[in-house]
Amino acid sequence: MPKRIAAFGEVMMRLQVPGYDLLSQSNILNYTFSGTGVNVVSALARFGHTGHLVSRLPGNSLGDAAAAYLRKLGIASSLIHRGGNYLGMYFLENGFGVRPSRVTYSNRLESSFNTAPAGEYDYDDIAAQIDAVHFCGISLAMNDGVRHHIKSLARAVKQRGGSVIFDCNYRPSLWGEDGYVKAKPHYEEMLHLSDIVIMNEKDAIYTLGMFSEKTDRTEQLMELIPAVAKQYQVQVIAGTHRSINNDNTHTLRGFLFKNECFSFSEQLTFSVYDRIGAGDAFASGIIHGEMEGFPPEKTVRFAAAASMLAHTVSGDTPMASEMEIVRAMTESVGDIER
Amino acid sequence: MPKRIAAFGEVMMRLQVPGYDLLSQSNILNYTFSGTGVNVVSALARFGHTGHLVSRLPGNSLGDAAAAYLRKLGIASSLIHRGGNYLGMYFLENGFGVRPSRVTYSNRLESSFNTAPAGEYDYDDIAAQIDAVHFCGISLAMNDGVRHHIKSLARAVKQRGGSVIFDCNYRPSLWGEDGYVKAKPHYEEMLHLSDIVIMNEKDAIYTLGMFSEKTDRTEQLMELIPAVAKQYQVQVIAGTHRSINNDNTHTLRGFLFKNECFSFSEQLTFSVYDRIGAGDAFASGIIHGEMEGFPPEKTVRFAAAASMLAHTVSGDTPMASEMEIVRAMTESVGDIER
Amino acid sequence: MPKRIAAFGEVMMRLQVPGYDLLSQSNILNYTFSGTGVNVVSALARFGHTGHLVSRLPGNSLGDAAAAYLRKLGIASSLIHRGGNYLGMYFLENGFGVRPSRVTYSNRLESSFNTAPAGEYDYDDIAAQIDAVHFCGISLAMNDGVRHHIKSLARAVKQRGGSVIFDCNYRPSLWGEDGYVKAKPHYEEMLHLSDIVIMNEKDAIYTLGMFSEKTDRTEQLMELIPAVAKQYQVQVIAGTHRSINNDNTHTLRGFLFKNECFSFSEQLTFSVYDRIGAGDAFASGIIHGEMEGFPPEKTVRFAAAASMLAHTVSGDTPMASEMEIVRAMTESVGDIER
Amino acid sequence: MPKRIAAFGEVMMRLQVPGYDLLSQSNILNYTFSGTGVNVVSALARFGHTGHLVSRLPGNSLGDAAAAYLRKLGIASSLIHRGGNYLGMYFLENGFGVRPSRVTYSNRLESSFNTAPAGEYDYDDIAAQIDAVHFCGISLAMNDGVRHHIKSLARAVKQRGGSVIFDCNYRPSLWGEDGYVKAKPHYEEMLHLSDIVIMNEKDAIYTLGMFSEKTDRTEQLMELIPAVAKQYQVQVIAGTHRSINNDNTHTLRGFLFKNECFSFSEQLTFSVYDRIGAGDAFASGIIHGEMEGFPPEKTVRFAAAASMLAHTVSGDTPMASEMEIVRAMTESVGDIER
Amino acid sequence: MPKRIAAFGEVMMRLQVPGYDLLSQSNILNYTFSGTGVNVVSALARFGHTGHLVSRLPGNSLGDAAAAYLRKLGIASSLIHRGGNYLGMYFLENGFGVRPSRVTYSNRLESSFNTAPAGEYDYDDIAAQIDAVHFCGISLAMNDGVRHHIKSLARAVKQRGGSVIFDCNYRPSLWGEDGYVKAKPHYEEMLHLSDIVIMNEKDAIYTLGMFSEKTDRTEQLMELIPAVAKQYQVQVIAGTHRSINNDNTHTLRGFLFKNECFSFSEQLTFSVYDRIGAGDAFASGIIHGEMEGFPPEKTVRFAAAASMLAHTVSGDTPMASEMEIVRAMTESVGDIER
Amino acid sequence: MPKRIAAFGEVMMRLQVPGYDLLSQSNILNYTFSGTGVNVVSALARFGHTGHLVSRLPGNSLGDAAAAYLRKLGIASSLIHRGGNYLGMYFLENGFGVRPSRVTYSNRLESSFNTAPAGEYDYDDIAAQIDAVHFCGISLAMNDGVRHHIKSLARAVKQRGGSVIFDCNYRPSLWGEDGYVKAKPHYEEMLHLSDIVIMNEKDAIYTLGMFSEKTDRTEQLMELIPAVAKQYQVQVIAGTHRSINNDNTHTLRGFLFKNECFSFSEQLTFSVYDRIGAGDAFASGIIHGEMEGFPPEKTVRFAAAASMLAHTVSGDTPMASEMEIVRAMTESVGDIER
User: Fold this and answer.
1) Among A121, D94, E127, F73, which is disulfide-ready with E157 (CB 3.0 to 4.6 Å)?
2) Whether A63 contacts A57, CB under 8 Å
3) What's the rounded Cα separation, in Å, for the pair C152 and A62?
4) Which family is annotated (chains A, B, C, D, E, F) (predicted)?
5) Which chain B residue lies closest to C88 (C-alpha atoms)?
6) First-last CA distance in chain A
7) Which member of B69, B71, B73 has the closest CB to residue D74?
8) What is the mean pLDDT of chain B?
9) Hey, are the CB atoms on E275 and C249 less than 8 Å from each other?
10) pLDDT by residue (tens digit) across F146-200?
11) Chain D residues 116-155 with a CB less than 8 Å from chain F
C-alpha cells in the first residue's frame, strides 16, 4: 500500500558544464534542481507513494524555477515554504576516464533552507500528514538551526508513530576540522531516533568512533553493523560497497541488516554515465522495500538495481520506474525497445 | 556497372532526444528522416548506383522537409509522390549501458504512405525504370493496401526481368496477436517472388514455421536456410547473427547462402554509437556485392563491415563510402586521418 | 477566495523549430505541451486557484513527459487519465515580419484524448470536486465521443451548481466543408449550458448564423453580443478585437458584456514574441475576474493585460503572475528589474 | 513550361556566428553553403524549373557536405565537378540595429572553383543540356581562368540558342585598386553576350563609365538604363533601389526595362532578418517571369516580392514557393497559418 | 598617449537564460563574467590603454574561469588576487517588449571580493603602477571592508598624482532602508577625492540631498551639476539622460561639465539588444576622451556613441573599437560590411 | 624558478563538428584556436612560466578572436604580430570506435603566419626577452620564408645563451612527394641548433635516414637515439611510443635520453576523449621538467602523465595544472571531487 513519505532537506541548483568541458573552456551550463531529499522522495513518488519535501525556497525567480522543477519530478509541494533570499548551488565539471569530476559549491549556508528561522515549520502538523520521514547527514552538517529542525521533526514523527529514516552521508568538507568529533553527538542522537539507517562500516569507524581488528571491509561490516543496530536500537541498516574501476565502470554490492541477519545483493558491474545521486536511489529502494514489506533479500536487490540504473541517467535524481528496476534485476542487457 | 535500384517503403521522421536524457527530462529533439528503404537506397547511391525511393509524402512542411532530406542523402526523388496528410514518426530515447534505448511510435497507419490509395503507383512504369527493387517486412505488416502495392510492384519488376530483394525484418509489435500466423502467407508470397532475401534461422522457425532439432544457432542456420532457398526458389539468402555484450559493444557475423554454399564473414566486435539502421547497411552491402558480381565471400565481408561502420555514425542511415568500408575490412583501428 | 477550476481538453505536444528556420532548414525542435485547457488552468493556478485538467494521456514515454510538464505548470493531475496510444502534436515554424508562422498538425483524431471511450470519465465525481469547468470549440470539433464527454460533463457541473465556461474558438480547418452548418447545433447546445462565454461578433455571424446590417466591427459587436446573451441566457460574454500591424506589433482591445452592459479595455499595442495561446490568457483573466468578483471594467482590463503579456513569453502557456499583470495594467515600460 | 536553367558560379561555405555575438565572444558557428548561382537556381528549382549548377567542389569532406547541401536545396548535381582542394568560405557576424553585419572571407582564390584548369568544363555539352545560363559579376572578378570559363560557356549557350543572364553585382573589394577600369572591358563583353541583365544606374555610371547630369536616382536610372540596353543590345534589364531605414527595416523598389518600357513594383517596406542573398531572389524572380512569359509588370512585382520574402528567412538562399510569393504580392500580413 | 588605468571592483558571474525564456521554462544558462570595473577597463584596453583590474577571485574552478575570461577581454591580470571561496553571481532573464528583464542575485556579500581582509591590497604599490583608478557606487555599497579598500586606494593614487574616477551608480536595493542617508557620507568622501565623476541630477538630489525648484530634468541638471562640481572640487562631471520607448528603442543624451561649461551629445535613438553595461561604456568613453585630451564636445559625443553601440552587443562588456565608435558618430546605418 | 619561454608557430582555427556527426550531417561547428606552439606555451604558462607566442595573425575579426582566445589560454601576446589576411583552419570530424577521426585543412599556406615577410620579426629583440624557444617540424614544412624565420630566431636565441627546443613532428602530407629527402637538411640544421629534441626512432630512420638492424621498436630506440644525440650534439632527447587499442583506449610510454642514460615512464593505458594535442602536452612536460631541474625519471613520468590527461580534455590545448598532473602520477582513479 502506498505510503506518505516526506524528506527534510535542502534543494540545490545543479549547474553542469555540458559534455566534458571545464568551466574555463565553456560558456554554457545546464541546470536542474536536486538534493538528497529531493532525489529520495522523487523516486518514492515514482514507485507510487506520495512524496513530500519539507524545505524552504526563496521567493524569487530561482525559487519559482526550483518549485516548478520539483513538481515536474512528482514531488508534493504543500510542505515547501517560500522565504529567504538564496538557493544553494553547485557547479559540476564532468570528468572523463582518469580525470575526476569536479564539484564547486556556492555559499549554501546563506540559503533559504539553511536560514529558516526557529518556528518556520510546524513539526506536529507535518508529522500528522506523513507515515515516514527521511533525513541525511548533509543537512545535519549545516548549522544549529537546521539541526534543531531535524531533531524536532524526527521526534514529532516518532511520537505520532511514523518511521524515521536517516542516511549518514558524512561529507568531510562540510564539518571542517575535527569534523568527526563535532559530528559524533549529532549522529548518535539521530541514530537513537531512527528506524532505518543508511550507512556502512566506515561510518561506524570514523563517525561513531567504533573499532574493529579486522582489515577486510566485509568482515568489518559484519562485525560493526550489528553492533550499531544493537547499541542504537535501529531496526534496519543498509548500505553499499562501491569500487571504481579503470574502464569507466563501477562495481557495487548492497547489504541490508535486519532481525540480526545480513542480506546481500549480487555484485553489480556497469558503465557509469552520471554518478551523483546514485546513493539516494539505493536509499529509495530500501525505503520502498521496507514500506511495501518486501523480504529483505528482495529489498536489497531492488535497491542495488535502482542504484545501478541511477548511474545511467543524467541528473542527480533517479528516473526509473519500479517495472524498469525489476527488469534490470532479472534480465541481461537488451536491444532497443520498440 | 552501376544499377538503378528502387526501394518501396515508408519515410519515418526520427525525433531523438539528444544525449542520454529521457523525454521527460529534455525539451529538445533532433530530427532526421529514415526508413528501411531510405537507408538501403541511400547506401546504394553512395556506392555509385542510382537509388530511387518509391513512397508517398504529405504535401505540407513536414513532407517538404522529408523530401529535402532524402535528396541530401543522394536519393533520386522522381518516384516519390506527394499526397495524404501525415508522416510516420518515432521518438528515440538513447539508452546507456544497462539501460536500453526506447522507441515510441506515432500513429503511422494514418501516414501518407500507408493510406496511398489503389492506383497511386504505376507499377509497370516504375518497373521499366529500374533493375532491382527492395521491400521489407515492416511495410508488409502495415495493411492490405500497402501489401497490394508491394506484391503488384514485385510482380511488375519480376516480369520486366528485374531482381526482387526482400528483407524479412519481422516486427512482433506490428503484427499484433497471432502475428506469425497472420504474417506467414504474406511472407511466403514474397519469398516466392524474391531473388535475394535477408533473413536468418529465426525467421525460418517463427515466421515460416519450420522446425529444427538442433539447438545451436549456427547449426539451425545451416539446416534451415538451404531448405528455405530450395522451397521458395531463392537464389541468395543472407543475414547476421548478433550478440550484445555487457561493455557497450556488439558482436556480429554475417552469412550468405548462394549456389548451395555458405560464406561467412569474420566475427566482428566493436563499440556501438547508434544501432538503428545497421541491419539496412548489411542489406545494402549484400545488394551491392550481388549487383557488382563480387564473389560471395567478398560480398558477405563487405556487408558485415558496412554494418559495423553503420553502428559508429549517428542516425539510421549508413554514411560510409565503398572505400571506407574496404578499408575497415582490411585495416586495424587507425589514428586521426590528417 | 481561490476556486477549484477544471478544464476539459486535449494536451498537444508543440514541436517548434528554434529561431526563424523552416522545418526543411533545421534539424532541431523544442518541445513543450499545451492546449487551450492546459493554458487556461495553468494561468488560473498561477493566480492562486486550484487548476485541474480533465484529459487522457498515453501510457508511454510521451505521456510521462506530458504529465511531468503539466505538473511543472502547476496543474493538478489527479483527474488526468492514462490510456490509448498517441498524443496530438503540432509543428510550429516561426514567421518573421511579412512571412507568417506556419502550423502543421499530426493526426490528433487518433490521440488518447480523442479516443477516450464512453465511460472513461466519471462526470459526477469530477463535478463534485470543482467549482467551474472550461471547454473550448476546438475539442467540440473533434468527434461525437468527445462531444458527448463535453456535454455530459457540462451538465453534471451545472447540476451541481458549478459554472460552465465556453470559449467558442472556431477553427475552420477542423470542421471541414460546410463547417458552420455542422458546428451550429453543438455551439448552440454549449451556449445554452454556459455561464461565461468567450466569443466575438464573428462567431455570432458565422457560427450562430446571426445577421447584422452594420459594417463596422464594433457596431456589429454591440448589436449582436447582447442578442446572443439574451437568446442563450449567458451571463457573461467576453472577447477581443485584434489587428496585426506591419511592424511586428499587434493591437488588441478586450470587451466584456454583463448585466446588459459593455466594458472595454484600453486599446493596447505591443511587440509580439509568441502569439499562440494569447487568447487563452485573455480567457483566464476573464475567469479570474469573475471568480474573484472584480468589477467588470477591472476584469476586462486585467484580461487584456494578461493577454498582452502572454504575447511576450515563449510557449503557448501564459507565465505571468497576478502581480505582473497588475503592474502591466498601470505602469509604462520599465528598465531592468534588479 | 519549366525550363532547364544553369548557373555558373562558386559555392561558398557560410560560417555564421549564431545570434548577435561576435567571433571573439562565441565558440559556435552555423554553416550552410551558398553563392549567387546556388541561390538563383535553387529558387528556380523551387518554382518548378530544373536548376543546374556548373561548379567545382573539392573531393573531401567539405566538398561532400557542400554537394549534399546543394541536393537538399533541389539543385541538379550532374554538372558539378569534384577536384582541387579548397572551398571558399566566409564568416558572418550579425549586426544589430546601428551595428552593421560583418563578413570576413577566407582565401577563395585558391578554391576548387577558382583553380579549375582550362578544359575542366565541356562548354558545348553543357550548353546542349540547358535553356539558359546565369553568370554574375562576383565570378567575373576572380581571375583570368574563371573569366575564360564564363565567356566560353556564355558563347556556347548563345550559339545553341539559349539565353544568357548576367547579374552585374560589382564588389569593389574583389577588383582592388582601379577596379572599375579593370572591370570595364569584361563587363562590356558580358553585356554584349547577355539577354537579361541585372543592374541599376550605379553600374552604368561606375562600371561602364556612363554619365548623367541628373542627380535624382530614378531620373538617372530612366536615362541610363535605356542607353545601356541600346548600346549592348540587351533585351531585359532589371534591378532594384534599396534604402536602409533606422528601425531595422529596408525599403525596396524593383524595376524592369523591356521593349523600351519601364515597369516598377510598389515600394515595399519590411522588417529584415537576413539580408544576404535577397538580390539573388530578385534575380530569380525576373528570370522566372521571363521564362514563363509573365507580363513585365507582373514579373517585376513577383521579383520584388520574392526579394522581400528572402529578407525574412535565414541563410543566403531564398526558400519561398511561387504560391507564397504570389500571396505576399496580394495579401497583407497574416495571422498564424493553421 | 596610452595610459595605465585600473578599476577596483567586483567580478560577477552573469548567468543568462538564452532567448526570452524564464528560469522556470528553460534548463540552459549562458555565462560570462563582468562588473562595472571589468567593463570599463576592458573598453579602455580596447582603446589602447593598459587596463588593470584590482580585485579578488576564489582559488577554484570558478575563479579560474573568471580569470581566463578577464584575460580574454584584454584585462591585465597582475593585480588580481586569488583567495576566499565564492564568486558573486546574478541570473538574467531577458525581457521582451512590455515585459521587463529580471535580475536575481546570489549572496555577493560572501564573495572573495567582498571578504578581502584588511591588508589584502598594497595600495601604494598599486598606485605606483597606474595613472588613474576607477571606482563605483556599487562597490561602495558593499561593506566597511570594501569601503576601506576603496578610500585607501583612492588616497594612495591621489598622493602619487594619479586621477581618481568615480561612477555614482546608486543602487537602492544594495543600501537597503534609509539608503540615501547611509550612503551620503561615503559618496561625499568619494566626491572630495575624485577628479572625474559620472552622475546626473538625480544623484545630486537623492544621494547628496541637494534641492532644485526646477521640474524639468535638463534644468535641474544645469542647476545642480555645477553646484556639485564646485562644492566637491570635481574637474569633470559627466552622465546621461535615458528614456525607454515603447518600441524596444531607447533614447540617450550625454552631457559633460568641465571648466564651468556643459557639452551635450546629440539625442540618440536606437534599438536595444542588451542594455546591461551600457552605462559603463559611456564612462569608458568619458575616461578615454579625458585621458587623450579630446575637446569636451568630442568626448561626450564619443561616450554617447560608445554607449549606444554597447546596447547592440551581447553581454555587459562593451566590444567596440575606437574606429567603430568614431564611425557610429558620423555615419548612418550601413549595409553589410564585406 | 619560472622561465620566459616562447614558441614560434602558427595559430590554427579548429572547427569541430560537435558529437560524432559528419560534416555532411551537421550544421554546427565549435571553434577554438590552437597550434603546436600555442599548446606548448599555454601549458607552460599554466605551470607558472611566462609563455610567449611569436606568430602573426590577420588584422580582422578572425584575428581578433584568435588573439582573445590566446590571452584566455594565458599566453603573453606582446610578441604576436597582426598583418596579412588569412588564418589557417582545419575541420575535425570525430571518429567513434572503428571509425577514425578525420581532419580537413584549409589552405594554410596563404595564412598570415606563412606569408610573414622577411624582416617581420626582430629576432634579436625577441631573443633578449626569453630564456628558451620552441619550434616544431610542422612550421618547418611550410615554406622557405617560415624556415628562414625559424632558423634565424633559433640562432639569435642560441647566441644570447637561451635554449632551443625542437619537436620533430614530421607530417608526410605537408612535405609531399620525396618528403623525407626534402626535409632532411632542414631537420639536420635544426638538430644542430637544438638543446632539447622531441622525437623517436622513427624520425631517426625516416627523416634522418639512419639505419638499425633491430626489429623491435624499443631496441631500435635504444640504438638510434644515443647516436642522434651524439651526432647532432643534443643534450636531451625525449619522446613516446603509442599504441591504439580496440576498446577506445591508447597505451603510451615516454622516454628521455640525457647524459647518455635512458629514463622511461610507466606504460600508461587510458580512455581517450580528444587525442589531438596530446603530444604537445608531453613536450610541455619535458620542457617544464628540464627548466625546473627535475631528475630525468621525474621529468619523463610528469610528461607522460601530462600527455595522458591531455587525452581526457576537449580541444588541442592541455588544461591540467601541475598539481593535477602530479596527482595523476601517484593516485588511482578517484570518485567525484567535492
Assistant:
1) E127
2) yes
3) 42
4) Belongs to the carbohydrate kinase PfkB family.
5) B106
6) 32
7) B71
8) 95
9) no
10) 999 999 999 999 999 999 999 999 999 899 999 999 999 999 999 999 999 999 9
11) none
The pLDDT-based confidence of B335 (bands split at 50, 70, 90) is: low
CA B27 to the chain's CA centroid: 30
Task: Among D222-226, E297-301, F246-250, name the one with the lowest average pLDDT.
Answer: F246-250
SS3 D226: helix
Model pLDDT, residue E333: 59
Angle at the Cα of A185 from the Cα atoms of A182 and A189, rounded to 5 degrees: 145
Is D211 an interface residue toward E (CB < 8 Å)?
no
CA atoms C37, C40, C41, C46: torsion sign: positive
Kindly state the DSSP code that residue C18 receives in the 8-state scheme. Answer: S
Q: Do residues A267 and A218 make contact, with C-beta atoms less than 8 angstroms apart? A: no
The per-residue pLDDT for B338 is: 66
Which residues are paired to B239 by β-bridges?
Answer: B255
Chain B residues with CB under 8 Å of A320 CB are 99
Q: Would you tell me which residues 242-271 of chain B have a C-beta closer than 8 angstroms to some C-beta of chain F?
A: 247, 249, 269-271
F236-269 as b/e: b if 16+ CB within 10 A: bbbbbbbeeeeebbbebbbbbbbeeebbbbeebb
- Rounded to whole angstroms, the Cα distance separating A182 from C68 reads 42
Cβ atoms of D39 and D280 closer than 8 Å: yes
Any E CB within 8 A of D28 CB: no
C-alpha cell at D160: 545553341
CA–CA dist D142, B284 (Å, integer): 43
Q: What pLDDT does C102 receive?
A: 94
**What fold does the segment set D235-332 form as a domain?**
UDP-N-acetylmuramoyl-L-alanine:D-glutamate ligase (3.40.1190)
pLDDT of residue D147: 98
Asked if E333 has any chain D CB less than 8 Å from its own CB, the reply is yes
Q: Which of C61, C68, C104 sits opposite B62 (nearest CB)?
A: C104
- Looking at the complex, does the CB of residue D314 fall below 8 Å from at least one CB of chain F? no
- pTM, rounded to two decimals: 0.95
| Chain C residues near residue A69 by CB distance under 8 angstroms | 72
* Inter-chain touch E319–D246, beta carbons under 8 Å: no
Q: What are the tens digits of pLDDT across the range E244-257?
A: 886 778 999 999 99
The two most distant CA atoms of chain A are separated, in Å, by 55
Q: Is E33 helix (H, G, I), strand (E, B) or coil?
A: strand
Residues C263-284 have a mean pLDDT of 94
To the nearest whole angstrom, how far is the Cα of E22 from the nearest Cα of chain F?
A: 25
Subunit contact A312:B99, Cβ cutoff 8 A: yes
How many helices (H) and strands (E) chain C has is answered by: 12, 14
CB contact under 8 A, C312 and E244: no
E214 at C interface, C-beta within 8 A: no
Distances (CA, A) of A50 to A7, A198, C40, C76: 11, 21, 27, 14
Helix segments in chain E, DSSP class H: 36-46, 61-72, 123-128, 137-140, 144-159, 172-175, 179-193, 201-202, 217-232, 278-292, 296-310, 322-330
Phi, psi of D282 (to 5 degrees): -60, -50
Task: Supply the pLDDT for residue D201.
Answer: 97
On the CB side of E97, CA atoms within 13 Å amount to 19
Inter-chain residue contact E336 with D246, CB threshold 8 Å: no
Beta strands D50-57 and D80-82, pairing class: parallel
Q: Measured between beta carbons, which residues in chain F are less than 8 angstroms from residue B308? A: 98
Within 8 A by CB and 6+ apart from E223, the residues are: E201, E212, E214
Q: Does D85 touch chain F (CB under 8 A)?
A: yes
Query: How big is the D-F interface in CB pairs under 8 Å?
Result: 75
Q: Which of A56, A65, A64, A7 is nearest to A32 (CA)?
A: A65
Residues forming CATH 3.40.1190.20 domain(s) in chain C:
1-116, 235-332
From CA B25, how far away is CA B17, in angstroms rounded? 9
CATH 3.40.1190.20 for domain E1-116, yes or no, is yes
Which cell numbers in the block locate residue D5? 536553367
Q: What is the mean pLDDT of residues E92-106?
A: 92
